[in-house]
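Morning. Coffee machine broken again, so started the prediction first thing and wrote up yesterday's gels while waiting. Chain of 336 residues, entered below exactly as on the submission form.
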Amino acid sequence: MDKREFLRTGGLLGMAGLLPLPKLFAGDPPAQRAAGGCVLIPSETAGPFPLDLTDNTYYFRQDIREDRTGAALRMRLRIIGLENCLPMANVRVNIWHCDADGVYSGYPNQQGGLNTTGQTFLRGYQLADANGEVEFLTIFPGWYNGRVCHIHFQVHVNSSYSAVSQLTFPIVEKQAVYTSEPALYPNGTDPLTPSQDGIFSDGYQYQEATLTLNDQTAEYASFLEVAVQGAGVVTGLQEVRNAEQFTLGQNQPNPFADRTVVPIVLKQPGDLLLELYDLQGHKVASVQRNGLPAGEHRIALELEALGLRTADYVYQVQVTNTNGAWRTCKRMTALR
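Came back before lunch.
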């Protein structure tokens, strides 16, 4: 099975894990918290340049820069449930934004006819870890006429529900990026404030991400906590059909040191393929079990035996039976 087939899992795409990016954000502020609980992230338009990442499996990656130049930015989002403010693991998060010149990939007729059709820069998605977190390596976005500097994101809870919104940055910190990197941002400082932007003019308290410079890495770090609906959301048809064939549990323990076990319940006899992928979408290991009876099965994974290092991975399970092939996936963290 190649990478594209792995990622094509119906409504919720499969994902994969690599060595996690450094955690640069100790003491992150709970941006989505308010007195008495959490606040649902405001719903915003996906914008004129969203593309459909569901149909473009090569966007599964942490580093989304490609050939774009700009100040390096590590963007981290923490997804929590509106009902209990707890982290939501294994949800898919898409982000996309313009480059330093205000140009998006994948669209014609930009800025006087500029055509980027077929290009894929500054777009990607990841699967949230046990802390509900995803992290991307990108560049700090520029701005374009009529819009303040911003990043689009979409949280897929299941194949029937997703939350679409946008984030922006504190004004002082944002302008400091532009003024400190004039060669990278020839358009200069952003002429708009969020309150002057049609998207954020009705309020952006829960959409303003932190922005700090890490002196050791010379990278900017940004964080936003995002509350989305969790409990009570109708499960998508793909999840229902998968559940009729098999159920995939979270590996235990997770995180783990050298050995973990993946629980799987088959509803009828079939063949099982478990594949591990890194966060850049590379398959790094696989385990095959054919002719399994219906019932509970526990697949043991050992880092040393598989030749793997400490990292985050995503495990996808494919079950093939008389009804067809069925897939789903979750994320795991290996520590040593």
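The longest helix spans residues 171-180. Going to sketch it on the whiteboard this afternoon.
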